[in-house]
Specification:
The protein is α+β, with helices and mostly antiparallel strands. The protein contains 18 helices and 34 strands.
Amino acid sequence: MKIFLTILCCLIAQYQLFAQTINWEQFMAKQNMKWEQLGKDYYSGITLGNGLMGLNIYQAGDSTIRLDVGRSDVIDVRAQLMPEAGKLYTKARLPIGHFMVNVRGKILRADIQLHLYDAIASGKIFTDQGTIDVAAYVDAKHEVIHIELKDQQNRKLDWKWEQERSVSFRYMQSHPTDKPKTYPDNPPVVRKNINEFVVYHQPLLNHGGYSTVFKASKDEMLVSVGYDATASADEDLEAINSIRGFEKDINHLKNHKSWWHQYYQKSFVSLPDKRMENFYWIQLYKLASITRENKILIDLMGPWASSTPWPAIWWNLNTQLTYSPVFAANHLELTKPLFQSFKTNLQNLINNAPEKWRYNSAFIGRSSSYDLISPTNEADMVKGPFEAGNLTWMMYYYYKYYEYTGDKQLLKTEIYPLLKRSVNFLLHLLYKDEQGIYHLPLSHSPEYKNAVDANYSLASLNWGLNTLISINTSQGIKDGDEAKWREVLKNLTAYPKGEDGFLIGKDVALTSSHRHYSHLLMIYPYGLVNWDHENERALILKSVNHWISLKGALQGYTYTGSASMFAQMGNGDKSYALLNELFNKYIQPNTLYKESGPVIETPLAAATSIQELLLQNWNDKIRIFPAIPESWKDVSFKNLRTDGAFLISANRRNGKTNSIQINSLIGGGCIISSDITNFEVTSNKRKSLQFEQKTVGAKVEIRFSGLLANEIISVNAKDNAVKNLSVSYSHHADWYWGYNSLTMK
């Protein structure tokens, strides 16, 4: 049914737009983390960061406060000196060091809050001999950590810097079997004083190095770290100049707070479950603590380094999940270090492929350092341990950047060429059987087994081919390879299936517990097999249920992946239950996560799963509140981003959607699927608007075409009277993350 609507005047639209207000300071105060005792380790400490440098504060003894200092890009550079050793030893993240601060008396308890809105931790530490005031932050504009520890009785605290051993974290683990036979330490650290600064300079074997520099007053410590991997710069001076610049900036605190306030206000989510709402906002805080638009891409630790066997970047799930929440959260700027690294290291991605394929292919293996060097060779490819689909899966998120921005220039010049190279690698692997069907040879399904026609690789190839064809058609590129892509799709083997759903690959069933959903990518995130297709629903449900039924090896991201899959099925209750199980079993008091060491991705992936309860965009439909748990009666969000460069806002009250707002940043069309009824439509740009409306099951689908750039469409139930987007808590109303009576249980 086609409807022509005479729009109410623009003033009404503007009123509806601005009437729903957010008191940001008040709302964000509810997201604060609380420490009733100092944390006992890395996973219960107070974490602060600015996208490159980080601080983690916790207790290291009855009378000792430990402050770990980190910088994300400090890596070893001994690959040329030790070509026989693996990159997890020769190009690994390196520890820096920590302060140990001894206080008078025994530490009894604390009253410290991490104020998310300001990204500042402050409060008190209580001992049996007095009280210590605490304040700390990592400045948003300068590479400086600011720490204040003040004894209220004006007694001097005993600060001691402890430089950590400058070798790969993996080398210090007991279990790895790939340790090089010869692995010398980097040269000894050099302590020196330069004017008012104390410098600990750590040389590296290639003559580069890093320097930890601090300036102490009675109650205040300013810390910076300089790093140079090429022996072409002065790392001492870099850190000293950072501190001097911080001190000269009389507005540094104001600017620091302002940066964070603007960051948070790009989008808004309010949930009736305080534990989950707090968790979501803490993940946004962590994202801006571990990366920024002009800084480094994210590895498995961010700026909070700790003992780990994984001192690198992982490409077979971790990086994909780490970046997954930034798109809907309207923080696309945080992806730029990742995608810039693809551009900067393009030749390394090409050289990762076997030499004979480099003319048109690119590849990345399981892990790498920041240079993205992670090759495969023909010997590995014959044996089958290589993961063929890693780069193409990564390209799913690069293409998502285009979908969420509409940047056609970037699509044509950078995304499309690299996607094509990643798909070409997979095409080179194909062979035909006697019936003319294409197959993939033996390859690895991450964290399980090798298989011919591994679904991990097949799903990526299917998505890549379909996406190349779509780009070629929509952008008029006229790529002569399209005929080949279509021919391969037409004759490509089907996803291997069995009685329990999708297999790992041909003749390889899922018979034991598997934390990774490597065999289910066609369901999520690619959506090639999806819930809109009724004939596929039984297969989807069977496959997902079988996967999570096999206990033993399941880990945190098993729960985020399955929660997202159930959300796509519209089963909000199941998704919510899985997320709560994740929180109960795996998420640490400060919301970090561990598997033999810190792994950053799982809590961030859980933020994506939460977003998908509220908003989904697949099969060309923007789905408003597609998987809300039955017990959530009131929910709101504002300016979550979707495909087509739309910012979507919506309210749900008493179990029913009562308002939707669509901000079209670049113009175009969209389909909105929702349960809203008896509604009115207004625009801020015009008085008349054409749209189509139809009912599909329990949902109403509204199709808008020809929206203008920066046009804001409001779809409001006629009885909508919501004035405040923040909702009241009905679950975990007294919850706080941090180290307190709730999280210590």
